[in-house]
Amino acid sequence: MDERGAFTREEIQTQPEAWSAGLEVLNGSRSKLEPFLPTGKYAQVIFTGCGSTYYLSLAAAALLQGLTGQCARACPASELWFYPGSSYPTSGRVLLVAVSRSGETTETLRACDAFKANGRGDIITLSCYPDQPLATMGDLNLILPSGAEKSVAQTRAFSTLYLATVAMAVLWSGRGDLYGELGQLPALGRLILDKYAPIARQLGQDMSLDRFYFLGSGPRYGLACELNLKMKEMSLTFSEPFHFPEFRHGPKSMVTPGALMVGLISELNHAQEWAVLDDMQRLGGRILTLGEEKCDIAFHSSLDESVRNILALPAGQMLAYERSLAKGLNPDRPTNLDTVVRI
Ligand code: F1P
Which of 23, 24, 28, 320 could form a disulfide with 230 if both were Cys (CB 3.0 to 4.6 A apart)? Predict the structure, then answer.
């Protein structure tokens, strides 16, 4: 394929099928996952990865702690490797959930090596390729081949691996009703991709915009970080992520008529989040909202928020993809980037 962005477009568009296949893997692994039920067993659950998979870790840790009460955090793999004293709890066993699309990123492998050598606890790995080193390093290794990609920037891999962490959190929460809701995500993802492609194209092609701010709080912060990374990698555009209220503490100095505020709206704190967006609109910025209802990109899913947050990803990815094409770039080949970082 040499049409610009052909791989990325295909990977974004086939996410619903990848999610269905991923859920089959998860369903088949339930009995292996259940014994890791973290509550009471571990002092902490640490999710780790690099780049996209670190951002995934931020979203997964917030979700797991919110759903189960188990203390959980996210840490870049390099921090676990270089600064274990600052990264791990001083006592108690840890469950390390190591996430990597490729299964070969050096920092993630070295963090797992050190974790094992120091007998810190148990490891679950999540990756997309069975024949790569990470895929045999865990006490449990979950492989999600439907996330595998040809593109450098992660889209399908990110959402499929993230879905696996949502399924784990839901399973460990004991909320069978939520686990049942996961199966509705592929059809909803398809609807959103079809319905909102024109908005993503229109905004992606709008060259009066020169900066993008992705706002998300709680479990949506990691997703906002990932969408910000897509905008940088694919379209070489100035982009930053923030927790909603944080934007008032300095970053708002950067709001101009060329700023698009992309808000991942929550159920619980939607009034506070809209207030931030309204303030930035008054300062001249433009807004794009994603959420269950009354948003530019509305999910209308009737699913629990913990399950439906993933639906913000496809439209946000499309925005970066369209902007990349509009700037004459190739989304499949981000500038200066390699698919795997080996050091
Ligand atoms: C992580 C990652 C990607 C990034 C780039 C380099 O890879 O940082 O997020 O887009 O391609 O690698 P992985 O460990 O998830 O394979």
Answer: 320
